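Worked example 3 (structure in, sequence out).
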């Protein structure tokens, strides 16, 4: 339902609604999909930038059976891996800005030069990166979430 409208989502039969399955733990070769989202957290109002990473390939440390299960819908159809998204969120505070800089320069390979962080962010789209996923239980222990553990440059 990528292009679904508010009305069409509400017209979905309840029996067709299923919880999205998290990607299994491991490393994925990804591409930065589009421009990042900039927003503020709801609790403290901390500004952040969030990149959408589109996984193109699962690496050898991803269990193939778990991956297939995470991509299989209740009706048996298998979604493409590229339909999934991994969120890479970086807080915009003086003490955490180095993480964003490391991601942009070290992991995405953007040339630093004399550019400002804003300029580096503008060059992130379509860059490739490795994303390591770890599974984290929800606070109540009823679900698992696929969280980004770390990113790394793609070896050439």
């Amino acid at each position: 339902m990528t292009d679904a409208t508010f009305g069409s989502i509400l017209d979905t039969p309840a029996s067709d609604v299923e919880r999205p399955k998290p990607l299994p733990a491991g490393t994925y070769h990804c591409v930065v999909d589009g421009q990042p989202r900039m927003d503020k957290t709801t609790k403290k109002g901390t500004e952040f930038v969030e990149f959408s990473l589109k996984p193109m390939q699962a690496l050898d440390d991803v269990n193939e059976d778990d991956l297939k299960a995470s991509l299989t819908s209740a009706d048996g159809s298998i979604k493409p891996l590229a339909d999934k998204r991994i969120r890479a969120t970086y807080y915009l505070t003086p003490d955490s800005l180095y993480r964003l800089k490391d991601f942009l320069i070290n992991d995405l390979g953007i040339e630093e030069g004399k550019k400002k962080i804003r300029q580096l962010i503008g060059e992130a789209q379509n860059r490739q990166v490795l994303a390591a996923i770890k599974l984290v239980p929800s606070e109540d222990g009823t679900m698992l979430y696929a969280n980004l553990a770390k990113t790394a440059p793609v070896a050439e």
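Notes: The chain is about 20% helix and 30% strand. The chain has one domain: 22-152.
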